[in-house]
Amino acid sequence: MRKDPFKLRELLEPAVRALGYELVGIEYHPSGKHSVLRIYIDQEEGITLDDCTAVSHQVSGILDVEDPVPGQYTLEISSPGLDRPLFQAADYERFRGQQVKLRLRLPVNGRRKFKGLLQGLRQDEVVIVDDEGNEVCLPLEQIEQARLVPEFQG
């Protein structure tokens, strides 16, 4: 599961919720002066540029005062999009029944990438059914990235 290296969720979530949004997750991509701190927000009506601007203004103030992230970085506020990233254990239950793509930190059965129908959580494992109909159990703590696979009606 993605780690929040600076414990930013507990710092920022109250402010994001107070503005009326869900804090979906936080990604930090270190790269010297080009580091990126990306915060995903959502709400039932969807996210607009004005929503991102409002959250950016509020979050920037908190980050400036608390200074939890060392060095320079670019702050990005984004909607989760159609290929929504999954960050927390609860996300794997919330999106049960949807297609998901997963990438692990370490291989399981010689593989790091998996795709299948999300069945939810069982103890500390994410359960999917792959394209061949096989149930695959993947350790939650080994998930490096997980995203929903958009389904388009044709």
From TrEMBL:
List cellular component terms (GO).
cytosol
> Which Pfam families does this entry report, sorted A to Z?
DUF150_C, RimP_N
Q: Record keywords: Cytoplasm included?
A: yes
User: What biological process terms from GO does the record include?
Assistant: ribosomal small subunit assembly; translation
Q: Which family does it belong to?
A: Belongs to the RimP family.
Summarizing the function annotation, the protein's role is: Required for maturation of 30S ribosomal subunits.
Name the record gives this protein: Ribosome maturation factor RimP
Supply the source organism for this entry.
Thiohalobacter thiocyanaticus
